[in-house]
């Protein structure tokens, strides 16, 4: 079994990677969707789906999770992870039993003194929040949530990023989990080290700032650097099949990671599944990216927030692939997507297929080996 399942996570990502023999399947959870939608994703989608997986597998709770991976510190990815960690491993009725966690937190590139100044970071609310724009508030929240994940993982007795070369998950790391190879393509170690130097240069007196000044300084920094900051890019391989899982990384950074790992042949790589970065935002990809990263299946996770998946992204992909056969998968059926497909097919000789998550389903899934039966 080698299946990527994309849950209905509204504007975020929540992915299950199922692998191993059907008689003893294993599970990796990648991101948990947003928290700031009233916990609707965790309580309405993620929790019930995990219970369903256990029931249909015929196993008792807690569900074994080989790895919980946080791609990066944005609420639409990390919010549900915080909820999941609250019902993991211990307690009277744990939902999951997590064996390992990958999470690049601020501990990886900020000093202890700098971390201490962020204890109340992200707490802006009410009238005080009016002083900050949405990007500042979102970045502030992401910093705080990253620290919450760090603390919850420590409380569970799990060493995050165990087995990595530097204590954080970065390009060059490679793992084998249950017979599946996972090659880390990003972020690059040199970029994280440069990020530390850049932060120190821009914010030498963080401790002397007011809480509001810290929010502004940190939010501006993380908003500019979030793709390099912690977005983990992984190539998962099993039985000759490959999935490229990209978080919100930029296309040029993904290509740099592929090149550094020696995975490009004549400047290209072919994979079975590409999780399209950043919910299909046109800011993260280009036509050239889709010419160089060629897939049989393209998975888009996004409910139309901020326009994602963008029409422009679909245009880049269809232009790059011309009349080749492939399938695009969407977690939401959106009018601008169906309109684009109709117009594109009418104007061009296209052979791609389009699949949408069914309205009553919690997720969609792409099977590369045996069909998912739970």
Order of SSEs, N→C?
A: EEEHEEHEEHHHEEHHEEHEHEHEHEE
What is the name of the CATH architecture?
Answer: 4-Layer Sandwich
What's the β-strand tally?
A: 16
| Amino-to-carboxy terminus distance | 12 Å
CATH superfamily: Ribonuclease Z/Hydroxyacylglutathione hydrolase-like
What's the overall geometry?
globular
pLDDT averaged over residues = 88
| Overall radius of gyration | 20 Å
β-strand percent reads 15-25%
Number of helices: 11
Major β-sheet profile: 8 strands, mixed
What is the spatial order of strands in the main beta sheet? 8-9-10-11-12-13-14-15
Number of domains: 1
Kindly identify the CATH topology: Metallo-beta-lactamase, Chain A
The CATH class is Alpha Beta
Given as residue ranges, the uncertain stretches (5+ residues, pLDDT < 50) are none
Helix content: 25-40%
| Structural class estimated from helices and strands | alpha/beta
Brief overview:
With 374 residues, the chain is of the alpha/beta class. The chain is built from eleven helices and 16 strands.
Describe the structure.
With 374 residues, the chain is of the alpha/beta class. It has a single domain, classed as Metallo-beta-lactamase, Chain A, CATH 3.60.15. It contains eleven helices and 16 strands. An eight-stranded mixed beta sheet has the order 8-9-10-11-12-13-14-15. A six-stranded mixed beta sheet has the order 7-5-3-2-1-16, with no helix packed on it. A two-stranded parallel sheet has the order 4-6. Strand 8 and strand 9 form a beta hairpin. Helix 10 runs parallel beside helix 11. The longest helix is centred in the middle third of the chain and has 22 residues, at 134-155. The mean pLDDT is 88.
């Amino acid at each position: 079994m080698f299946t990527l399942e994309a849950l209905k996570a509204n504007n975020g990502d929540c992915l299950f990677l199922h692998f191993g023999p059907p008689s003893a399947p294993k599970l990796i959870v990648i991101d948990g969707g947003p928290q700031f939608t009233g916990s609707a994703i965790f309580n309405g989608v993620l929790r019930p789906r995990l219970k369903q997986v256990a029931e249909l597998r015929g196993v008792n709770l807690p569900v074994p999770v080989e790895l919980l991976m946080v791609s990066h510190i944005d609420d639409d990815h990390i919010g549900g992870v915080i909820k999941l960690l609250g019902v993991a491993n211990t307690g009277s009725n744990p939902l999951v039993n997590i064996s390992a966690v990958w999470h690049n937190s601020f501990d990886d590139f900020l000093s202890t003194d700098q971390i201490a100044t962020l204890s109340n970071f992200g707490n802006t609310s009410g009238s005080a929040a009016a002083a900050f724009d949405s990007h500042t508030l979102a970045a502030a929240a992401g910093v705080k949530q990253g620290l919450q994940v760090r603390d919850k993982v420590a409380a569970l007795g799990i060493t995050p990023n165990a087995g990595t070369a530097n204590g954080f998950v970065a390009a060059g790391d490679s793992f084998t989990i249950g017979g599946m190879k996972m090659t880390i393509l990003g972020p690059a170690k040199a970029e994280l080290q440069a990020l530390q130097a850049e932060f120190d240069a821009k914010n030498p007196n963080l401790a002397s700032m007011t809480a509001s000044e810290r929010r502004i300084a940190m939010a501006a920094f993380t908003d500019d650097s979030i793709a390099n900051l912690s977005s983990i890019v992984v190539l998962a391989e099993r039985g000759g099949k490959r999935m490229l899982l990209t978080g919100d990384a930029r296309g040029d950074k993904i290509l740099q990671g592929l090149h550094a790992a020696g995975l490009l042949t004549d400047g290209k790589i072919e994979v079975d599944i590409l999780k399209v970065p950043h919910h299909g935002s046109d800011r993260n990809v280009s036509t050239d990216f889709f010419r160089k990263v060629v897939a049989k299946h393209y998975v888009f996770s996004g409910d139309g927030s901020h326009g994602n998946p963008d029409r422009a992204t679909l245009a880049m992909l269809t232009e790059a692939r011309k009349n080749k056969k492939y399938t695009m998968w969407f977690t939401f059926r959106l009018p601008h997507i169906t309109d684009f497909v109709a117009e594109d097919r009418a104007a061009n000789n296209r052979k791609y297929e389009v699949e949408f998550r069914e309205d009553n389903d919690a997720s969609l899934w792409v099977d590369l080996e045996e069909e998912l039966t739970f």
